[in-house]
Specification:
The complex is a heterodimer. Chain A is mainly alpha-helical. In chain A, 68% of the residues lie in helices and 8% in strands. Chain A has two domains: 4-86, Winged helix-like DNA-binding domain superfamily/Winged helix DNA-binding domain (Arc Repressor Mutant, subunit A), CATH 1.10.10; 98-179. Chain A contains seven helices and three strands, in the order αβααββαααα. Chain A is elongated, with a radius of gyration of 23 Å. Classes of the chains: A mainly alpha, B alpha/beta. Chains A and B meet through helix 6 and helix 7 of A and helix 6 and helix 7 of B.
Chain lengths: 180, 236
Amino acid sequence: MVSITPHLILGFLATGPRHGYDVKHEHVARFPRARPLAFGQVYATLNRLLRDGLITTTGVDRAGGPDRTFYQLTEAGRQRLESWLSTVEPPAPYVTSALLAKVMVALTVSGVERATAYLTAQRAAHTARLRELTAVKTDPRASLTERITADFAIHHLDADLRWLTTTLDRIADLHREVHS
Amino acid sequence: MSPVLHARGVVKAYGPTPALRGVSLEVSPGEILAVTGPSGCGKSTLLHCLAGILRPDAGEVLWRGQRIDTWSEARRSTLRRGEFGIVFQFGHLVAELTAAENVALPLLLAGVRRRAARTAALTWLDRLGVAEVADERPGQMSGGQQQRVALARALVTEPRALFADEPTGALDSLTGEAVLGHLVRVAREQQTTVILVTHDATVAAYADREVVLRDGAVDRTGLGLSPVTDSSAGDR
């Protein structure tokens, strides 16, 4: 599987040289609802990209505070980024998620009632989150980035909710068959 | 806060086919309530009963503490015209009238003078972002514009309650989002109580609260397992 973080950093550097601190903050601005990149992860990735000749250093900013090294994309880095952007992501061949795992285990170990109780609680949590994200994207002050990231999460939650409902229907059918 | 709208054990059947099997719910003033559930679960029938369009076979519907299910059609019609606004999936605009004339219609029926009705209609078209179609007929407008005009017509009388049945069901997602955004914003500004019927969880998420129906009854799991023939959903 191709790692995403190095390509995100190549993408941030594609618009001009930046130092590590800038890269971290660019990530927060672009993906406000994603888990933030740790500084350690940013610098470790920059070092790997440097080692692989995909970026190069262009100078150091010494104006007040600690030294900051600027990085910029090399031609090889630009080609790598283009290649990544041109590659279609394969639909995930194996679906794994904590949601699915819990339902399967609950059905196997604890039976229909436990699975139903879990799904009921999960649906309430999903619905509450859906409402929060809808408030975010409908806020007139929301930026385009915030709307796009909220939409992404909303559509994934909606897919989960549809799956929850279908699963309950299947469980109900099974329950009726076994007890008829 | 005491409920402004209250259903107690509402039952409704179409011939031998049961549509509602004892639905109870309460709606607070200014609340936006989504009624959701799969197709055929009875949510549109419930909306029609709550809005006084249909009379339940059994049970009670109370609006501001008064039972309206026992009222005559004429009295319910007066209530609907004066205090309720209703929007359906397809705007049901009058094809021969312009947008402004469609929106002014409920005011004219209520005896408002023509000039004042037109002024109010233009104000509402502007609030819903469709002032530019004021003099166009429905056939000349996009689906999203028609639905916003229908919403303006439902709101022009400044109703206490708005009943919306799949108001974005026929629209693409961004147009639907714009219509819902307007609906929710205006409802909050006017403190209008909203009953929003939808099968879509992403639409229901615009509401403050959700009631899920399944096979004509409130499904308290929200998931669609064993239907509860409900006369005790916290209101007895």
